[in-house]
Amino acid sequence: MCGIVGYMGKKDAFPVLINGLKRLEYRGYDSSGIALYNGDLEIYKCKGKVQELENLTGGKIKSAKLGIGHTRWATHGEPNDVNAHPHISNNGDLVIVHNGIIENCDSLKQFLLDRNYTFKSDTDTEILINFIEYVQKEEKVTLDQAVRLALREVVGAYAIAVISKKEPDFMVSARLGSPLVLGLGSGEFFIGSDATPFIDLTKKVIYLEDGEMAIISTTGVSIRTIESDQPVDAVIHRLKMDLDSIEKGGYDHFMLKEIFEQPTSILNTIRGRLFENNAQIRMAGLDAISDKLEKANRILIIGCGTSWHAGLVGEYIIEDLSRIPVEVEYASEFRYRNPIIKSDDIVIAISQSGETADTLAAIKMAKAAGACVFGICNVVGSSIARESSAGAFTHAGPEIGVASTKAFTAQVTVLTMIALYLGRSNDNLSKSRFKEIAKEIKLIPKKIESMLELDDKVQSIAKLLNKSNNALFLGRGFNFPVALEGALKLKEISYIHAEGYPAAEMKHGPIALIDDNMPVIIVAPRGGMYEKIVSNIQEVKARKGAVISVTSYGESEVKALSDAVIEIPETLDCLTPLLTTIPLQLLSYHVAVQRECNVDQPRNLAKSVTVE
Question: What's the CA gap between 431 and 319, in Å, rounded?
Fold first, then answer.
């Protein structure tokens, strides 16, 4: 959600900024812009894609060694050229890019209006840069001190980068609640909302912590606290990902590439952690809190969107294998509803990006109440990874497509290993049952590979859906959350209204919607409640609904009742979500392509939701 990039060094800044913005497009945005200093400030910005910005600047850019850029996801003010970042101060000296929300912007704006400031945009960001200008003028301080003093009066969340034409040897950045990363090159420096803008230019990074600011000059970087102006001894990390991991690799879309990467991502997630012969899970994060896990009377799982769905699968598996009570909460609701949190609770927080604002706030609430927080995320160095008491990385690799795919199955895989660990620790899971499940988990990557060979068939089945305005997804047991996730995928990227339900709940309302215009996607693998869901299919067919079924190989009864069938390999009940979700991902992808939607960057959505 919004993307920031900045550069100071020996190179021409423009191509660094433009390429960086293109790599941040996955975050979701509706406008973009850049500011360059080459003896004066040049600002270019427009509604639309980065390519439109590049077209706008064609042939006009003078060489510059300092610049900042931005992709904006609208919060204050509609998407247009005026509201796009960067924003400039009234005196024309200061320029800012900003990710986040300034909650007290109205009072700051009135304060500035009373002092004859004027505003061109509807954004909180223009208010902030003018407040920084006001502080600098009144206090007669340097740029970094003006930024620091101004931010002490700000309420909200932000990641910012500021440059000044009067102090062109400096670039100031700061963060509170929104991510910001510094890249350290040889005589050059980068900033980004994440490391993707400069991954091919340096591997050395510093992750700014909340409440910190960085003063970047031609000679180095100084990091200080915003509140007390104290120096910070920053830790330099070395990036492990490479440029190939964030390129399409011959696929038409990142989403399709990431769907096909799931055999590898699941294998990477279990590698070095799952030991079948010894009936052991070796996960450093779990071992670090083993004493707290032994005393846990309840597990709370918090997440948003796809991560919440993964948490629901986790609830089923953890309760089944360990018999520990589990509650799953939307992080966005949990943080505001005065929840009951006890010191012997274990809170599992799930986020692909590790920067989800609601989940991060919920973590802080849980920690303040004395609970132990275990984070599950995909991004090393992310805020949630650093804020959690302990945790596990999913090792899914960079996920660029906004609609999450491989992150979901990796999260479910981690949660399954947690269930195995807990079950063995409290003796609710026998060693033989552990070995049975572990053996089957190791076969899942190969089984997914066989399912991906059905891609052409799923593409054909997608034609049954691509003209629809609505769709219903049904599942039971372990696959009820899969139905929710399948519906979310379809609505996210194809803009078809879709809802997921437990199949038995269809009779309690949704059945009223079923007619020959309502396709119903039913997740019905062989197992626990197979006969029950066959009855649900019959209820749909009796009302002329078109049925697309995801079922196990050789299930002739479901096949006879369905208009189309996607078959999955046999596996254990508790592991079926790792297989049943694959065809639903492919189905949503092909429906979106056939409807000519922007698969990787669906409208109004952002990959990393860093504001409320």
Answer: 17
pLDDT digits (tens, 9 = 90+) for 73-108: 777 788 899 999 999 999 999 999 998 888 899 999
Share of the chain above pLDDT 70, in %: 97
Q: pLDDT tens-digit profile of 292-316?
A: 998 888 999 999 999 999 999 999 9
Say whether 2 is catalytic.
yes
Q: Coil, strand or helix: which one is 426?
A: coil
The owner of tokens 């849980």 is 366
Closest by Cα among 587, 575, 570, 579 to 496:
587
Beta-carbon contacts of 226 under 8 Å, excluding residues fewer than 6 positions away, are 148, 151, 152, 174, 176, 211, 212, 213
Evaluate the CA torsion angle 10, 11, 14, 20 in order and state its sign: negative
H/E run at residue 390 = strand 390-393
Exposure string for 192-221, b = 16+ CB within 10 A, e = fewer? bbbbbbbbebbbebbbbbbebbbbbebeeb
d(CA 486, CA 476): 13
Cβ–Cβ < 8 Å for 201, 216: no
Do residues 347 and 374 make contact, with C-beta atoms less than 8 angstroms apart? yes
d(C-alpha 70, C-alpha 33), whole Å: 5
**Domains along the chain with CATH numbers:** 3-245 (3.60.20.10), 248-449 (3.40.50.10490), 454-599 (3.40.50.10490)
- What residue has token string 């649900």? 536
Beta strands in 210-343 (DSSP E): 212-217, 220-225, 237-238, 274-275, 280-281, 298-303, 326-330
Q: Which residues pair with 512 in a beta bridge?
A: none
Report, as an integer, the average pLDDT of 240-258: 77
**In which band, very low, low, confident or very high, does the pLDDT at 242 lie, cut at 50, 70 and 90?**
low
- Residue 440 class from Cβ within 10 Å (0-12 exposed, 13-18 middle, 19+ buried)? middle
The answer to whether the beta carbons of residues 422 and 322 sit under 8 Å apart is: yes
From CA 151, how far away is CA 173, in angstroms rounded?
11
Tell me how far apart the alpha carbons of residues 204 and 192 are, in angstroms, rounded to a whole number. 13
Give the helix/strand (H/E) hosting 211. Answer: none
Across the range 196-209, mean pLDDT stands at: 91
Q: Which residues of 353-374 are buried (b: 16+ CB within 10 A; e: fewer)?
A: bbbbbbbbbbbebbbeeebbbb
- DSSP character for 63? P
Q: Is the pLDDT of residue 244 over 80?
A: no
- DSSP classification of residue 56: H
Is 140 considered catalytic here?
Answer: no
Please state whether the peptide bond connecting residue 502 to the residue before it is cis, i.e. omega within 30 degrees of 0.
no
Distance, in Å, from the CA atom of 542 to the CA atom of 330, rounded to the nearest integer, reads 36
Alpha-carbon distances of 361 from 98, 104, 336, 337, 357, rounded to whole Å: 20, 19, 10, 13, 6
Residue of 2, 304, 372, 597 with catalytic role: 2
